[in-house]
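Severity: low
Component: inverse-folding endpoint
Summary: output formatting inconsistent between runs
Steps to reproduce: submit the following structure tokens with default settings.
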């Protein structure tokens, strides 16, 4: 009995590692948004322990009264904590290409009595938003799901204010997890400058600002 339990204890992590690796290989070649039915699976106690929803908005640099854009809300846990951080004078616009995701967030916000969230169904390449609107844009484990990230980064730059921030938070358990150095290189090439890096290989946050262009 003890030997059997030991075999299970040893084989389970190996099985999970194999599954995780297989998913990463598939996702490397085929980028697609997270299916709606997986939202609750990804929002699990381990993730919430490592990447606490209560402190993530603070880590992102979000302050009360800001106008903030969230890309890819998942099941809405980080959406609600961000909206609460923004307060009555702030607003959070959250976008997703999947209508069911946006409906899920709206339902959750209504149940929690949170009224400063605007859910919008949209892709990231042509946002239905005027230029220079947002104080901050953030993505939590989402950038790896976007098939054409350079186009998305350009569109984020368009709708971000001149002094605004673009923020990424990544968790190593995510199948689309990019190395921080890779994400810094891609984002910098798109016309952003790294302001701050927080965390480690398991959970990191990168904060960027627009690269200032000097003209003679």
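Observed output (run 2 of 3):
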């Amino acid at each position: 009995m003890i030997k059997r339990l030991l075999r299970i204890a040893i084989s389970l992590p190996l099985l999970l590692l194999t599954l995780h690796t297989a998913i990463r290989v598939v996702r490397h070649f085929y980028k697609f948004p997270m299916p709606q039915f997986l939202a609750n699976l990804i929002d699990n106690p381990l993730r919430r322990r490592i990447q606490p929803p209560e402190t993530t908005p603070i880590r992102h640099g979000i302050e009360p009264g800001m106008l903030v854009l969230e890309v890819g809300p998942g099941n809405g846990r980080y959406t609600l904590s961000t909206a609460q951080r923004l307060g009555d004078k702030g607003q959070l616009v959250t976008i997703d290409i999947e209508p069911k995701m946006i409906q899920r967030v709206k339902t959750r916000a209504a149940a929690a009595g949170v009224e400063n969230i605007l859910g919008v169904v949209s892709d990231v390449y042509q946002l239905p938003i005027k230029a220079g609107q947002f104080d901050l844009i953030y993505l939590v484990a989402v950038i790896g799901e976007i098939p054409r990230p350079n186009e998305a980064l350009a569109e984020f730059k368009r709708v971000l204010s001149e002094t605004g921030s673009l923020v990424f938070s990544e968790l190593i358990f995510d199948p689309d997890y990019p190395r921080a150095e890779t994400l810094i290189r891609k984002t910098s090439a798109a016309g952003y400058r790294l302001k701050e890096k927080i965390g480690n290989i398991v959970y990191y946050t990168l904060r960027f600002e627009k690269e200032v262009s000097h003209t003679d």
